[in-house]
User: What shape does this take?
Amino acid sequence: MTGRQFPAWAVTVVMLAVLVGAGLGVNALEANAPPNGPIGVRMTLGRDSVVHPLQVNVSGARAYETILDEDENPLETVGVWVLVDLSYATTDEPSLPGDFVLVDERGRRYPITGRDFGEWFASPDLWHRGTLAFEVPLDALGDLTFEAWPSGLGPGSDTPMPYAVLALRVDPGTVEPGPGVVEEPELLPVGER
Amino acid sequence: MANDVGALLSVPGIARWIVRTWPRRVAIAMVGVLVVVIAAVGGFARVAPEPARQLTVGETVDVGPYSVTVESFFVSDQVDIYGIPDEADAWVGVVMVLETSELEGIYTDHQNFRLSGADLVEERFQKVVLLADDSSASFLTADLPVHVAMLWPVRDSGAIGDEVELTLTETYEDISFLFEEPTWFAGDRIGVVTVPRDDEIPPAILDEEP
Assistant: This one.
C-alpha cells in the first residue's frame, strides 16, 4: 500500500481547476459586490444617504453676509457665507469625513472655508449634527450642488472614489445680514438627524 | 591599408581632401566669406538682456493662474512668531491682492514671485496669510479676491532699506511630459515692481509677545 490512490496527473489537474475557479470566483465577487459600494450617490434633502464609509443627512442651506468665528469676531468677506446644516456618521470605523465642496452653475468649486471651523470627527452610527461654512461670491448663489467626497479625493483623482451629490437652492434674495452663528457639532440621540 | 585610413582622417589629410578640387576650394571660401560678413554686420555681438518692464504699485498684473496687485511691504518679527525659521530674524511681508478665475481654485505658486533687496533664507515665499484674520490664504478660490501678506523669512533684517523689488513671472499650464498630468510651468518674466515700505502692519496678523 503506497497511499497513492489517484494518478499524479489527476491531482495536478484538480488542483489547477480549484485555483482557477477560486480566482474567477473572487473576480466575479469583486465585480458584483465592490467592497466600497456604489461610486456615485444622489442624495435627497432630509434623507440618510450612504456613501461609503460615510452616512450623510443634509437638512438645508442658508446664506449670510457675515458670520462669527469661534472667538465671536465677524469674518469679513467680499462674497457671502453659505452655511450647510447636516449630520453625518460613518458606516464602520471612526474617521474624518474627507472633503465637502459647493459647486455653482458655472462650475466654480468652493471647498469648506479654511479660515475657521472645519469638519468634525465621524463615528460609526453615532450621528453628529453641525454646520459647514463655505465662502462664495454673491453671483454663485442660485442652484448649487453640494458634493461629499468621504475619501478626501476630488475629481482630479484617476482612482474611482465614492462621492455623493445633492442639489441645493440658495436664492440670492434670501441672504441675511447676519451675523450667522456656526453652532458646535452636537451628538444626536438615536434616530434623530 | 590601416595607414591609409589614418592618413585620411588626420587633420592634414582632411585639409588636403578639402582643397583638392576647385569646387571644394570655392565652397570653403564661401563659408569663410559668410562668417566674415556676419561678423562685419555685428551678427556675433552679445545681445543685452531685455530690461525688466517696470510695473507700478497698485497695477493689477495677470501672471497666468491669478492676478497680482502689489501694494507695499513690511519687515516684522511680530508676525507668526513661532513660524520664523531659526536662521532668520524677521519676515518680509509683501502686501498684495490676489484674485483667480480658475474654476477649481488654485494654490499660490512660488514660480510667480521672486523677491530681491533682502537677505532671504530661501528664495520661495513661505506663507500667505489673510490680512483680515491671519488665516492661511495659500489656496485661492474663483472670483474671491483676497488681501494678503506674502511672507519670506530674512536674515539681517536691519539692513533692509525703504524699497524691495518683486519680480513677477508668468506661469502657464501644460501636460507634464514626465507625469502626464497638468502642471504649471514658468514662462516669461513679466516685470519688476519696486515695492515701498510701510511698517504699519494690520493688527489682525500681529502675534502677542510670546
